[in-house]
């Protein structure tokens, strides 16, 4: 039976060391390989000249450097956002987004090909679910963005940066791309462990945000395991009936059950949750809706992220006006003491905004 090659991006540093032991190679040689992967950001085995020859031979015979080829790159007109259509080994494709904000760069990565949650205003939900991504396919997206930042020509520079120059370092990752991260829990957590490794990508936990539609077992597992990254919960409505109309997963995990899990999470971890609210004109952006969400979150350590609806071909709602969003914020702050932000819109013209990622069926 032919075995699939081992994707190096799927291994933690400890697992990589153990693999070398199984090949009768001293585990200390894993350190140089790890640096090639995550410090030098190499894209092929040919760029690893300092490896022990025996190790190089084993890598070529039994592993793959899981670089994801770019099928299409699209840049927004304002220059702040770039979207990458990346090809997977089985010919499926996913989208990954690089977003620039003042003082930071963020990678928005996918956790699945498609999504099974079916949120009515989300393009990924409209395309349906194909499969989970592996940990290596999740990590590879972050490495892709880090490599773009490292090797792109800085503004005004006469020559390209090399892998030995600092370039722009990626410091923020949001699991808000295609898919439901908590539906693919084990692979997502494996990827996060790799990305947080202090000898590799070294992403701080407070710079990683995981967004869920409200998969209750996953939230409770996060609480039990004391996972330190930020948690964002897609709420969108303050009653069960209204939420189920927008978020079909609410039929499986009702609002009351979801809020109980959120309370458990905050009490167990001491962390606030970011509650996401897609503002749809005339549907959930009224004064009454603002007060309803304020009552729902009363007493919880919470912040509300207000997200004006982004257009998709499968949903005909409209984004709320800025005046309504401001009024929503004022009610949350003045009547309930709940902080909120209105999400900066990035990449709408290239369908790279929140809820817009999707690919054609392969």
From TrEMBL:
Cell location: Cytoplasm
Active-site positions on this chain = 95 (proton acceptor), 354 (s-methylcysteine intermediate)
EC number(s) from the headed UniProt entry = 2.1.1.192
Q: Where does [4Fe-4S] cluster bind?
A: 115, 119, 122
HAMAP family, A to Z: RNA_methyltr_RlmN
Query: From what superkingdom does this record's organism come?
Result: Bacteria
- Biological function: Specifically methylates position 2 of adenine 2503 in 23S rRNA and position 2 of adenine 37 in tRNAs.
Q: Which reaction does it catalyse?
A: adenosine(2503) in 23S rRNA + 2 reduced [2Fe-2S]-[ferredoxin] + 2 S-adenosyl-L-methionine = 2-methyladenosine(2503) in 23S rRNA + 5'-deoxyadenosine + L-methionine + 2 oxidized [2Fe-2S]-[ferredoxin] + S-adenosyl-L-homocysteine; adenosine(37) in tRNA + 2 reduced [2Fe-2S]-[ferredoxin] + 2 S-adenosyl-L-methionine = 2-methyladenosine(37) in tRNA + 5'-deoxyadenosine + L-methionine + 2 oxidized [2Fe-2S]-[ferredoxin] + S-adenosyl-L-homocysteine
Classification via Pfam families: Radical_SAM, RlmN_N
Q: Where does S-adenosyl-L-methionine bind?
A: 179-180, 211, 234-236, 310
Cofactor(s), by name: [4Fe-4S] cluster
Tell me which PANTHER family the record gives. Answer: 23S RRNA METHYLTRANSFERASE, RADICAL SAM SUPERFAMILY PROTEIN
**Cofactor details (free text):** Binds 1 [4Fe-4S] cluster. The cluster is coordinated with 3 cysteines and an exchangeable S-adenosyl-L-methionine.
Query: A GO biological process this protein is involved in?
Result: tRNA methylation
The record ties this protein, via CDD domains, to: Radical_SAM
State the gene name recorded for this protein.
rlmN
Q: Which UniProt keywords apply?
A: 4Fe-4S, Cytoplasm, Disulfide bond, Iron, Iron-sulfur, Metal-binding, Methyltransferase, rRNA processing, S-adenosyl-L-methionine, Transferase, tRNA processing
Its Gene Ontology cellular component terms are: cytoplasm
Its name, as the record gives it, is Probable dual-specificity RNA methyltransferase RlmN
Phylogenetic placement of the source organism: Bacteria, Pseudomonadati, Gemmatimonadota, Gemmatimonadia, Gemmatimonadales
UniProt similarity note: Belongs to the radical SAM superfamily. RlmN family.
